[in-house]
Amino acid sequence: MTQRILVIEDNAMNLKLVRDVLQYAGYEVVSARTGEEGLAAAERYEPDLVLMDLQLPGIDGTEALRRLRENDERRVPVVAVTAFAMQADRDRAFEAGFDGYLEKPISIRALPAQVQSFLNGGKRK
């Protein structure tokens, strides 16, 4: 069975890049452009993993994660994807409850293996 990844990203170019790389790697990809759309997509599509930008229009990634966790009995892993690259930024993401952290720019070579690691329960700090 194909694993489904929900990508929540407001930048069209970043979204296309991640979607194309993951689809090529064999994943089913659904997407959303805002935190609110992401919450609706998570409920509708029941993804196996969520890749979420932290800076989104409307509610930000941290608030979207908080709301997602309120209604998520499956405890889907959610990975913060951000251009913030300082250790303090990573620490804040993990403190907020994210299961992983990916820095932008995304490495297209590394992304499929990183996603598989998150799906297998791994964390990347």
UniProtKB/TrEMBL annotation:
Q: Which Pfam families match?
A: Response_reg
Enumerate the SMART domains for this protein: REC (SM00448)
Checking Gene3D superfamilies in the record gives: 3.40.50.2300
Residues annotated as domain Response regulatory: 4-119
- The protein's superkingdom reads Bacteria
Keywords, alphabetical: Phosphoprotein, Two-component regulatory system
4-aspartylphosphate modification sites are D53
Listed PROSITE patterns: RESPONSE_REGULATORY (PS50110)
According to UniProt, the name of this protein is: Response regulator
User: Which organism's genome codes for this protein?
Assistant: Tenggerimyces flavus
